[in-house]
Amino acid sequence: MQKIIITLLFISILIFQPLFASADEYDRNEAFVSWKLMAYSLYPFGYTLEKLIVKPGHWLFSLPFLKDISGHEELSKSLVSMDSEDNFESYEKLKSLYLETKSQTEKPEKVAQNAENLASAEEAITDNAKKFAARARTSAARAENSASQSEDAAIKAEEAAGKAELSAQKAEAVFNKLLQK
């Protein structure tokens, strides 16, 4: 019995926990903002306007005998619905039907000309791709050459630094000898 009571107590704490959540802190600077006061005073009028005029007007103009006069359409029956998740599919179907109809009505000469234009465009793209590949190979070779030259320059710089260090040591030794005399 105790286990049941503890379990029910635990479940009720979990269920009613949101009731114990604290509210936002009261900020006196935000409490009396003029636009909020104006919104609070205008909201009842807007709500009343919507409920008493707009919604009954919509209902009235959506009646079957007034649909033709008002041009009212239900969203679910319109071509592109705001609520529909299939908008893109509808558009694609419409587009494919249009292109199919258009291709059936085109003259054979125009279709042949379009095919030739497409082939020449494909050849131009292939040529540009070949040129780009050749440029990329040239750039890679230049980068490799530059890297080897940089390595050679680094080796020469290390040798020069070593020689400079030796000459500095010799100069220091000569200077020390001169100071001793």
Describe the fold and architecture.
The protein has helices at 2-16, 28-31, 34-61, 64-70, 87-105, 108-180. It is mainly α. The protein is flat, with a radius of gyration of 42 Å. The protein starts with a helix and ends with a helix.
Short description:
It contains six helices and no strands. It has helices at residues 2-16, 28-31, 34-61, 64-70, 87-105, 108-180.
Keywords, separated by commas or semicolons:
6 helices, mainly alpha, flat, 181 residues
| Total count of strands | 0
Number of distinct helices? 6
Low-confidence stretches: 78-84
First and last CA, distance: 108 Å
Instruction: Please outline the major beta sheet.
Output: none
Structural category is mainly alpha
Give the mean pLDDT.
76
Q: What is the percentage of strand-forming residues?
A: under 5%
Approximate shape: flat
Order of helices and strands: HHHHHH
Chain-wise SSE layout:
Blueprint: H1 2-16, H2 28-31, H3 34-61, H4 64-70, H5 87-105, H6 108-180
